Each structure stands twice: as structure tokens, then as C-alpha cells.
Structure prediction request, 682 residues.
Amino acid sequence: MKPTVHDIARSAGVSLATVDRVLNGRPGVRHVTRERVEQAISSLGYVRDVAAANLAKGRTYSFAFVLPNYDNSFMIGIRDEVDAAISRSGAERTQIRIIEVPPFDAPALADALDRIAADMPDGVAFVAVEGDEVHAAVGRLKETGIAVATLVSDLPGSDRDHFAGIDNHAAGRTAANLLGRFVGGRDGRIAVLAGSMLVRDHRERLEGFAAVMGESFPRLSVLPVMEARDDPSLAADVVSAVLQRYPDIIGLYSLGAGNRGIVHAVREIAPEVRPLVVAHELTRTTRAALVEGLIDAVLNQDAGHEVRSAIRVLKGKADGLPVIAAQERIRIDIFLKDNMP
Amino acid sequence: MKPTVHDIARSAGVSLATVDRVLNGRPGVRHVTRERVEQAISSLGYVRDVAAANLAKGRTYSFAFVLPNYDNSFMIGIRDEVDAAISRSGAERTQIRIIEVPPFDAPALADALDRIAADMPDGVAFVAVEGDEVHAAVGRLKETGIAVATLVSDLPGSDRDHFAGIDNHAAGRTAANLLGRFVGGRDGRIAVLAGSMLVRDHRERLEGFAAVMGESFPRLSVLPVMEARDDPSLAADVVSAVLQRYPDIIGLYSLGAGNRGIVHAVREIAPEVRPLVVAHELTRTTRAALVEGLIDAVLNQDAGHEVRSAIRVLKGKADGLPVIAAQERIRIDIFLKDNMP
DNA sequence: CAGTTTTTGAGGTACGTAAATCAGAAAATT
DNA sequence: AATTTTCTGATTTACGTACCTCAAAAACTG
Prediction:
């Protein structure tokens, strides 16, 4: 039978109240007594029944998620996952609200964070945009004792507790590895399309991609990166133009959003001369394109995992617990048309 | 505030006991009253507090995991994950024991299942071996009212409730897709190494692999499958021999275990003429080989996911709940050297 | 209508922990 | 030695649900 606090009290020869004081770090226990209780805890192998503890505590965690209000499929997916978490909030003793901010707007983000701080939630998760204002706002949140996690895009060097997202450098390397191998031994050009070089995750992906291309695939020449602000129609134009200009493009890496436009542009090309395409995020568009053969591989970060990880970490931080890094690592999933979920 | 049973009782104008009867499907409630209560439940949006319910029930689920007692890394991984689940058993109200059986031995497996049935656990998970005895034993388990799940290797056509494992057909297709693309436009032979064609998962992987090779890569000719009984030293010999015999082998698909032997054999080949290698299961061996460049891609099924899924399903089945298919689908992970976890 | 059966109410105990109060014991201080 | 301070014990209530008993009311039966 699983030991309970009563068993510990009996085994340590103390009262329930003292065990409680030790377990919950309350004052008023002599050092020797505390040790005796801890000894009993470890020798009996006691583990707190979290369900019962939560029930008794009746504690609820209040969190805020700050998300950019633009509508690419991936962000919609993130929002859906946060909504799903909200709908589970009863069972998980959380109270989560979503705050929308304009995308790529550091002052607006910093503003939102400051307004949230006034409400004194237990934790905040946000999609980072780089900017000194944001760093400062994060600092203020932390000073107020609020747990802070970045989501999808990180803000290194700030006081944030955790980043719930993928290693974008590794993602870029993976993309290069895949694309380089897929083109076989052929020579040719590789085009790269990003959303914006002002966003950290896109920059890091590009770095990783360029590094592996240089190391492992010297026969492929990577064209200067094009930016399409994650806009499908702009992306379509840009891709069409570059494919026309350089007929020897044999590979395309789309490291941002706006894949609908890319698929559209690629479909226009005759199948024999179509470039190989590696893109990010498994959405309805990329999924269909994989099946149709217009995209060859998709790298994905699981929005559900990211959101749940962020919540877990914020909860833990609110209780002063450390992050279990291995558990919170978000994987870079590779999907081909045959292993789609 | 989240509504409780008390709120429902008040809102429906009935007593707590009646609400309890409705909630837990106990008899002794008039149809009209039951409807009134259900109406209150849905209008208040009541959801049962699972933690409190479990606490009150004090129910524990007893499960048995039947695993083959041979020591390839993947099976060790599965066993570790079951051990991990055992160590969590306090918090998860489960009581799990592991039963070891000789591998590839249908009568022994059937025997073990029958012995387990005598103990009347709530559920059984096992790595299937094909055989009429096993089908029959599963039938007996189900008749006794025990939930049954297959793990890693399935037993279609039996009465099992669930299969916790990957779609091996899709895994084979994915492997072919990767390998076919990696070799570029070159012609050549592809060698395939399996553990045993008597095991269902290996057979299915081969089918999927051969199908895609035929459809999409007609310039590659797939050699007859070799069997090495998941034995590293045997695998090393077999691979060395076939590579010697057919110098134009440009790709190798290892769809079983024993990768240590394959890595060993491939290391002997001069780097310029090494075949591309796709293998299964991310282990210490395959991980190191990926880094070293001896293996080019690894397909993986996450042992932790599989074990946890099996437990979730067995719990649900023990309570008569349906399986949420989307939640229990085990993904086929692809790892290159750059996206390893 | 009385008698029987079914339905309902009221109340309690239990699960394992948290958190509080209050009294008493032990230790430290004066 | 007296006083204050610091510990500790004993006990109680609460969290939300499950499950039990017993009595009372309501609904049927003939």
C-alpha cells in the first residue's frame, strides 16, 4: 500500500502537523526533527498524492498567453491549442486568457506585457519579438514574481524562465541535410524564402541551413534569401520570379509561413523541372502539397506540445520547481508523404 | 467557479444521492428525474473532477506487460519505459508487473497469457507473435473481461482491444521514399535486411518498402530480403557478404534490429562506395552511427509513447470507455543527424 | 383501498492532503 | 529560577466525489 502522511507521522514518531510543516516547507520545525521526518519520507518511499494535494489546496493558476493576431495556419494552430487548454482548465486548475497583439511589433508587445503584469497572473507565455522594450518588460514581469515563458520564438538574454519551441538552428541544418540529399549529386542553385530576417527563428533557421549547405553540399549554391513577410500572394510572386530568372534552381527551402503561395507557384512549373521543396509546419496546405508531390518534406513543430509544455513549465515555475529539460524539449518532426499523422 | 455535484443537486431540485445515482449510472432513478438532473448537468456545464473522483474511488488498475526476454536495445527501451510506469504507479493508481517470455515463441506466449488470466488483472499488454494459440489465449482473456492491447507488434483478427504501435506498412513506405530520394537519380541495387519474416511488423515494413520502390523508383532493384534474426554478428556477416557479392549496392534498408552488426560491416567499406543506410529505432548504436555518417536516416517509434498509450487504453477499456484514436496514434519519427533529440 | 415496489432524501464515512487553531512541551534567554 | 521564544502535538475543517445505509415519500399493483 502506498504510504501516506499518516504513515510518515507514525514512522517518524511525530504528529501529522509536523509532517505537514516539513512537506510544505513551513517554519517551526527543529532541524533534528525535520531530518527525522525526511528520513522517514525517503525510507518509506513516500510520494505526495498530487491529486489529493491539489484538491486540498484548491489552488488555481492564472496564466496569460500573448499571441500575434495574424492568421497563418501555424499561429491559428497555436491559438487552437491554447483554446483547447482553456477548455481543459477545469480539470487542470488553470485559468488562461489570450491577449492578441499586432505581429512583429515590439512596442505593442511590451505594452501588452506591462498591462498583464498589472493583473498579477501566475505566469505569462508570449511569442517573442526582439526589442529592448520587450527585454525590459520581461524584466519587470520577473521582478513582480511572474513566471515567463517564450513560445515558438525565443528571446535569449532576457530574464524569461523557459523557451517552449524548437531549436531553429537545428531545424535549418535538418532542412539543408534533407534538401542536399534529395537533389542527389546534381549541381544547381537553391532558393531560400523567409518571412522576415527580423524574426529570430527565421534568422536561426537560415544560419543552420547555410552552414550545412556550405559544409556538406559545396556543389549547391544558395541564392540570397528572399523575404515575403509570410504573405502567400507575395511569396507566390517572389518564387515565380526567382524560378524564372534562374532556371537551374533545383531546390527551394521555405523557412517561414506563406506556403500557400509557394505551392501555387511551384504548381505552375512543369513536373520534370520542378525544384525539390522543403517547407516548415504541417498545415492543410503543406499536407495536401506533400500528397500531391509539390512539397517533398515538411519540418514541423507540434503546436500542441509547445503549448502544453509552456503551461507545464509555468505551473512548475509558479510553484518554484525546476524545469525537467528532457521532458520539455520540443522535437523537430520530419514528415514525408508516407509518414504523415 | 466550477460547478460541483452540490450545485447540480440544488439546481435540479434533487438530493445529492440522486445526482450521484445519475452520474454513476446507478439504478433507482425515475426517467423524468434523471432527465432533470442531466439537464442541470449540461446547463451548468458540470464536469466531474477526475482527481477528486479517483481519490474517492481509491481504485487501482492492475496490468500485466508480457515482453520477450531478448536484449536488443529497442526491447530494453520498452522494458525501461514499463519500469518507469511502474515507478509512477503510485501517482497513476496502477499496479503493473512485467512477465518475460522467450521471443518468437507462440506457445510460450499463449501459456503466459493463460497464466496471467488466472490472476484476473484489469488489463494485459503484450508483444504479439503470430499463432493460433495466441489468438485463442486472447479470446480467453477477453471472455474473462480483461482488457487486451498489443504492443509494438500487432495481432490483427484477434479480439485485442487495441494496438499500441506504428503503422509498419507506412514505415516501410517512408523508408523507401527516403532511401530512394537519397540515392538521387542513380541506378543500382538495394539490399534489405530483416530479423525474421515470421514477425508481422517486419513483413509489413517490407511490403510497404517494396511497394514504394516499385512505384516510385523503378531504376533501383531490390535484392531478395535477408534474415538475420536480429542478431548483430549474424547481421554483420550477411551484410558483408552481400556487399562483396554485389558491388553496385547503393542502398541498404535494415528493417529489424541488430544494427550494431550492420554498422560494423558498413564501417569496413571505403567511404566513397558506402551504401546509403536507413535503419529502424533510435538507440545508442544508431545514434552514434548517424553522427558518424554510417547511417543516413533512422525511423523510430517512441517506446515511451507506446507504453503510455497502452496503459491509457487499458485503463479506459477497464472502465468501458472508447479509445480516442487520434490521441493514441503512434507516430513514425524520422531522425537525421541534425534533428536528433 | 391497502399493500407492494420503486424512487428519493438525508446523512454519514472515506480518500489523502492542506491549512488552521490552540494548548502544551522544550529550549533559549534573561 | 522565571520568562520568553521556539517547537511540537492534537484536533478540526475543507476540497469534490464515491458509496453506503436507513427512512420516508411517491408511484404503482391488484
Summary: The interface with chain A takes residues 2, 47, 49-52, 54-55, 90-91, 170-171, 173-174, 176-178, 181-186, 208, 212, 296, 299, 329, 331-339, 341 of chain B (CB under 8 Å). DSSP finds 15 helices and twelve strands in chain B.
